[in-house]
Give the backbone structure.
Amino acid sequence: MIAKPKVSAAVQNALGSKEPVVALESTLITHGLPYPLNVETALAMEAAVRAAGATPATIAILKGEITVGLTPAQIETLAQAPPNSVRKCSRRDLPIAIALGQDGATTVAGTMIVAAMTGIKVFATGGIGGVHRGQPHDVSADLLEFGRTAVAVVSSGAKSILDLPLTLEVLETQGVPVIGYRTNALPAFYAANTDLPVDQRVDSAAEAAAIIRAADAIGAKHGLLITVPVPADKELQADIAEEAILRATSEAESTGIAGKDITPFVLSRVSELTDGASMAANIALLINNARVAGQIAQAYCQG
Ligand code: PSU
Ligand code: MN
């Protein structure tokens, strides 16, 4: 028996009439941002998707049930949940959360899996997981998911707390195209640019949608990464970001923070070290990525 996601009426209707839908993840709500910024940002991302003419589908596991299209009240409940009471669900965690009837927040990998099960092609987030610096064997399950799940993920690259060249290598190995939306260089999450080239620049949602359709047409089983730079007025200067990241990652190492706790720790520590500037950048890029994803989903449906 295949577990059927519980899909909201709005999302079901949109999918049934081939209207654009954008998947949104929930780990950034429970592990990425503090309350109440987390709920405000999640709702602002949904509004940005709607303003672009698409239907948002925020995804989580609620009491063991895969839920697609959370209500604002469900988002609020997740946002207020005490730390560590909601399981961070990547691929390996999904069956555990479902079997035990737990609440789970889906990561990029977890959300890609549920989006694909539901028939949603476009997904917006902040930054994907990648290869951790100094720990080339800590490869986020997000990266491997791109190799086997055909969803287009709109993000500001991989979080710059990571080793970006190694992250690109893992994507390349798996045949995942890295597209730059109005950029030639891979964005670095808090900062708009790196010196790493993307595989292809596109300048419109229509061009991005054409590449997703071509991937469908050749029967591609893998995902696509569409990268969008952080809005210029909220960008964090690369050297300031870098200094805070280096400090936070070395603190994580010396205090023994490991595994799935590294990313949440480093995100919140970098925010403290930059007096909240990194969080302002994170929120701005999340909302902007939701808007661009809405436009791409729209163009995809029109093709
Ligand atoms: N983007 C954000 N904030 C986040 C994340 C993405 O702006 O918190 C989350 C995503 O859910 C992503 C996860 O899958 O961070 C990566 O965690 P890890 O490095 O442990 O795989
Ligand atoms: Mn990891």
Q: What stands out?
A: The two ends are 34 Å apart (CA to CA).
